[in-house]
Each structure stands twice: as C-alpha cells, then as structure tokens.
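Protocol step 4 of 5: obtain the predicted structure for the target chain.
Materials: sequence only (see below). No template structures provided, no constraints applied. The aim of this step is simply to have a reference model before the mutagenesis design in step 5. Sequence pasted as it appears in the construct record:
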Amino acid sequence: MITITSEDFIASIADALQRISYAHPRDFIQAMARAYELEQNPAARDAMAQILVNSRMAAMGQRPICQDTGIVTCFLKIGLNCRFDTKQSIQELVDEGVRQAYTDRANPLRASVVSDPAGKRQNTRDNTPAVIYTELIPGNTVEIALAAKGAGSENKSKFVCLNPGDSIVDWVVKTVPTMGAGWCPPGILGLGIGGTVDKAMVLAKQSLMAPVDMQELQARGAQNRIEELRLEIHAAVNALGIGAQGLGGLTTALDVKILDCPTHAASLPVAMIPNCAASRHIHFQLDGSGPAHFEPVHLEDWPTITWEVSDSVKRVQLDGISRSEIDRWQPGETLLLSGTILTGRDAAHSRIQNLLAQGKGLPEGVDFKGKFIYYVGPVDPVGDEAVGPAGPTTSTRMDKYTDMMLGLGLMGMIGKSERGQATIDALKASRSVYLMAVGGAAYLVSKAIKKSRVVAFADLGMEAIYEFTVEDMPVTVAVDVRGQAVHQSGPALWQQKIRDLRRA
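Step 4 output (structure tokens):
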C-alpha cells in the first residue's frame, strides 16, 4: 500500500495545469509545422504561422497560449493499493490544484467557470469546479490525465444516435461544416463510438488525450477497423477544404482520434468533440515518492518560423476612420490596426441590451459610434504587460446582438470564425465590416495592445468592457461592406482545388 499526500497531489495538479497553459505538446507542434509546410493557401498558411509563432512565444514567456484557459477535465485512475493521506474528497483535492494554478501570481490564468449556469451565471473567480472521471484499477499508482478545454471548441461538440447500418464517415462529413470555424482548425477531432449517450461523449473527450500520430498511421497503414475509420475520416474532412481558421486550405484536421465501447444492438451512438489549436492536455503518475516533475520546455521543439508583415499589408488608423476608407477594404486583405477599440462579449452585450430595453443610456465612457468592438475576454496582466493574452472569442455568439450594436453607430467588429447570414446582411446594409483575428494566437495579439483599462461592467471580470489602445494589431477582412465573406468563399474554392489536385 502506498500513500499519496494531499500536498503532492494538489501541487502536481497545479503544476500540470500551469505547464499546459503555455506549452503545447511536442507532437502537436510537429503536426502543425508539417501542415504549415504543406499548405498552399497563403491566408491559411499565414494563420498557421501566427499560431506557431504564438506557441513559441508563450513557451518562452510562460504565458497562456490562448486567453481561454479552459474548463478543467480530470481523468483519474486510482490504483487499489493506493491510499490518500487526507480528509478531503477527490473533488476538493483536484479543485484546490485548479485554484492554485489559476490564481498563480506569476502566470494567472483566466477564470471562465460560472456557477448557476441557467440563472445568474456568477463567475467562481478561480475556475473551479473541475469535471472529474474516476476509475479504480489494480496497481499502486495514481494515473492522472488533465485537459483544459476552451469553449470555442467545446461548444462545437456534436452527438447523434445513428442506426446500426448508417455510415459514421458520412455523418462526420455532413456535420463538420456545421461546426463552423469557432473550434479554431486545424485541430484534432475526437470521436466516441458506442456505449450509451453519456459514455460516447466521455470517450470522445478521452480520445483527445492521445498523441498525434496520423502521419505514422498513414505510413504503416491501418491494422483494425478503428484505424481504418481514422484514416477515412481524416481524408474526408480535409477534402472539405475548410482549412486553418475556416479560411480555406488543405488541412482542417491534423488527426482523428477514436475510442469505442460495446453498445446496444439497436443503437450506434456517435459523439464528436474537436480540440482547438490550443490543444492543452498532459499525463502523469503519482507513486507516493513525491509530486510529479515535468521536463523543462525545449525551444528546439518549435520550428524556426517567423511571422512577418508583407508589403501588401495595409496599416490602418482607427481613430477618426471614415466610411469611405472602410469601403476600400477587400475580403481576405490583411490589416494592421492602430488606435482605440472597445471590447465586449456575451455578458456585456446582454447588459447593454437590458439597459436599452429599460430606456437607459450606455454606461459613462462607453460610446460605440464610429468605433470597432473586439470580442475578447483577456487574461489578467503581469509585470509590465498592458493586458494578458487576448485572442478573439467566437463571433457567432454575438450575432443576435448585431442589429443593436450597429444601431449604436458601430463601424466594425473583430472576432474569430464566421458570421451568420443575417449578420452578413446587416453589415452590408450598414456598410460596416467584420474583421478576423487568429484564434490560437492570443499572446502574439496581446503584444499589439499598448494600453488597457476597464470602462464598464467591472464586476463581470474578463467579460467587462475594456478600452484597448492597439498598435499594428493583425486582422483579416472577413466580411467587407459589400457582404462578401471569406468564410464562405475560401472553403468553397479550396474544396474544388483539392478535388482537382486529387484528380491530377
């Protein structure tokens, strides 16, 4: 019988979560680098370059890869010959590790978890509680697998109960385009097949903890039906041409992972959960000899890729910008923004809506006329940072507020992923634009933010309205004033190009 102390367990959880906040797994870096080298769409290649440069910067600075540092999922396999020297529950032990990790003064992580989810949605301020799955197994070690999953990818999870004879590949091919680009492709698709509804979803989440090995699988060939499915789905999804950030391109999925389980004879449950470009997970064991130890980051694991501004990039001063200047922007064009922008996410938009419904004005200091809004919930700053990592959140969640915000004089919006057709139509009617920043490049983006201050709704924490002063913030024109949308045109173009390449 071995003894696991609460101190060792909590410290290991905290250290592991800190590690995955700023350091990608080596296999993921290598897979992304291979996709970058093969990519033929300049816009998608540029997005992947930003992701890889951001990844290396985050590892060097030990600051979060993405501003959404996720909700924690913990898979525990506890050996039957282990005992815990504690009076706390497993939930309390894991939560204390999460609490210490997310409130670390050297690298504070964003608290995104809210309690009373169907009511007040009050932020717990320390990202607890974690979601825990526990299994008792033979042995004298505790095996721990941790993931910190952002909502941009988690919200795109899908489930279906197929008939036993239905094609899983066909369902995936039909479903992936409905997920949009909010999951920040290229990433990894995790599938759970069989069991019950709840078991399939857990299997899909658990599958994402495995190493990226698609290239090795392609080289040696499938050895069982699950590996055949992985290869079929990987090829079929990439043939869709969705590409990096949904801009169109050769790589949408870096890998496809599958776990299965026996199921009822009349049922074929299939769950699909995507992992985004942050891809945060880690695995370790405790054997009673002390806390877990993690190897230092090796910067040689990252490719020597630089992100440089080309001559075709247009520098834009936002303060005092005119409609006539915005009229000249072209879809897919890269801009470097300087000037003042306001931020706002779901909670801030909801509060604005309630104020207007009550006949009240906007809070003092908040004026959207002639301004751009950035959909972001930043990490708290440390040291001399103006703001912590501050990448974009999924814009489609704000679609229902589009008419309201444009009515307040807003000129443009900045976020990630596509917009719905109603929003595109509204942008066209008001001669406004939607700009896309790269999801998964939060630390890189934050370096363009020179000043930051909260101007309204401070009680919302990361969902407050901030005023940012930015200098050369990189964005892509995703919807221009004529309603031309790159998230529609890009994948359609590259889907046809991929067909042509495969026929050649």
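Step 4 remarks: The CA atoms of residues 33 and 303 lie 7 Å apart. The domain at 314-490 is CATH 3.20.130.10 (fumarase).
Proceed to step 5.
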